[in-house]
């Protein structure tokens, strides 16, 4: 096959496709096909030497009439009208030759008037006032969802279709229409199913919210560990009560007050002001404490949930996130700011008021597991990794052996998950549900969630090598469904050799 572009014709771009073929009568000839989209209609054209497609040139009025001796089928220009007038592309007509299939209608298409009303443009078969009947003026139509396929007769200088060929084309077209109808019906059923599921979830959330507000939260200490409360916790907290439940579950062992938050926020603002005035990075880096990490916050905030566009500069929560992180670096100069903290603080800000978010943030990072990671306590981190690997081998022996074959250790993927409490790795709604149970069960659930993710994608991971596994676990699929993940988490038993998480972690600590 050869494709060439005819640059000699100024009005239109000509694409010439030479395709040797043989007619039903044994004659050999060159077949050229083209597809032209106008509005909701696709025209299939054919010719002996080429076909013209594209838009009308602005210089079309200057072009003279086409040469009658020029080879090929003239699709545009001043060509004589066919007998019987212009054909309607929405009806089925038979030419005088019964073997020639002229045009085919498609169901469920907009009428000409309705199409013009919706698009504000002329339909392919509409002829504007003052426009010659045989000339098409405008091809710049935006095709909508449904497209008709029009099969034209072959030009007179080509062999006509046989009755068998025309029948075959009709059958192929009917199959295409039937397949399109099936797809549309399938999509409609899927949308109805999704809508029903959405309504069902909304009803569940509404009913659950009533239980939390009227029964559990007013009697928090006596109800928090009941079977009913724990079951509702596992199903996911309603957004309206999520922040309050998190605050109560995390607690405030540090006895931080809103007034204390304002004090450290003022100190952070003074630091920022001093840094902006002096501009001395050496002075900031030479401080004995780690408050020098204040300037690093600005760099990391821009990378926090970038798809939401609410924490970046100019966003509604940019200053709020900046304040919470800055106040914490002044509150805990021994820890300072560590990359990943911004995701944790951002999730809390989305569910809590500013001062409450800071209180929960400081107490959450004060937990043993988080403190070990954010202070980069390598010895303690290795103990957590060893305990995780023991449960990994117990629950997923094949995948664990596959990872060991590539020397892929837990620290390569667990660090990012634990540093951000899965808020960076998982979809935000799924991450919030993980946080719900994490606030209930503590650090054990973080590692159980990691095993649940590995179980969910076990079959995929078993087919990958080291590089692809590391890339996959760093960037998990965005279409992950919370129900699928929590089903895998519930199938993961945190028991290894009849020992629970805390017992295994202590045993590992003694062994190391």
From TrEMBL:
Annotated Rab-GAP TBC domain residues: 236-442
A Gene Ontology BP annotation from the UniProt entry: vesicle-mediated transport
PROSITE patterns with a match to the protein in the record: TBC_RABGAP
Entry coiled-coil feature ranges: 163-202
Keyword terms of this UniProt record: Coiled coil
GO molecular function list: GTPase activator activity; small GTPase binding
Top-level taxonomic group: Eukaryota
Compositionally biased region (Polar residues): 91-109
Xref: InterPro entries: Rab-GAP-TBC_dom, Rab-GAP_TBC_sf, Rab_GAP_TBC_domain
Cellular component GO terms held in the UniProt record: cytoplasmic vesicle; vacuole
Gene3D superfamilies documented for this protein: putative rabgap domain of human tbc1 domain family member 14 like domains, Ypt/Rab-GAP domain of gyp1p, domain 1, Ypt/Rab-GAP domain of gyp1p, domain 3
Region (Disordered): 83-109
Pfam family membership, one: RabGAP-TBC
The protein's name in its UniProt record: Rab-GAP TBC domain-containing protein
Originating organism: Denticeps clupeoides (denticle herring)
